[in-house]
Write a structure and sequence with these properties.
Helices cover 28% and strands 29% of the residues. By secondary structure, it is of the alpha+beta class.
Length: 174
């Protein structure tokens, strides 16, 4: 059974703690996937860039009266970008991610197109987005095919594509 989650907009006074928690959770996950790139984990500038984008919204994910994760969503109109999402490490494998995704879709009923990127080594993420949420892999960014929205030097050494990212998209017929 999928748990019930709610999404709450992050208040300005809670933003520093939200950013710190987001960075800690996603940096920990990045270090597990890319131990050689530990120093290039999620930076404050990455988070601030997403939060400063037009239409950006920082959201806390709550279940049973406790915050269990967070997300940053950007977009206007029918096109949305899931910049960041996390479920606390100790709460994974409890269907919270799927419940959070369903809550995001419900929060933005006007959205007919969603995009996100995830590291190519993140098999759990890829399984989740493709097999559970209905996304399709549409592009593979790496040193030979860089993401036009990110500086090339963040993709790692061109002889080793450990920095590669999959772009995923989902179209929703309404």
């Amino acid at each position: 059974m999928t748990p019930s989650v709610t999404l709450h907009t992050v208040k300005p006074c809670d933003l520093p703690a939200f950013k710190r928690r987001l960075r800690e959770e996603l940096s920990q996950a990045a270090r597990e996937l890319f131990p050689d790139f530990a120093d290039t984990a999620l930076t404050e500038g990455d988070v601030d860039g997403a939060l400063g984008a037009p239409g950006a919204e920082a959201l806390q994910i709550w279940c049973d009266g406790e915050q269990v994760g967070g997300a940053v969503v950007t977009g206007e109109g029918t096109h949305m970008l899931l910049d960041f999402i996390y479920i606390d490490a100790g709460r994974r494998d409890r269907q919270l991610g799927l419940a959070a995704w369903n809550a995001l879709e419900a929060r933005y009923p006007q959205a007919t197109h969603w995009e996100l990127c995830t590291p190519y080594r993140a098999r759990r993420n890829i399984h989740f987005y493709v097999n559970k949420c209905g996304f399709c892999v549409t592009e593979y960014y790496n040193s030979r095919h860089p993401d036009p929205h990110w500086p090339q030097d963040e993709l790692g050494d061109s002889s080793d594509d450990d920095g590669g990212m999959f772009k995923l998209e989902k179209d929703i017929a309404r």
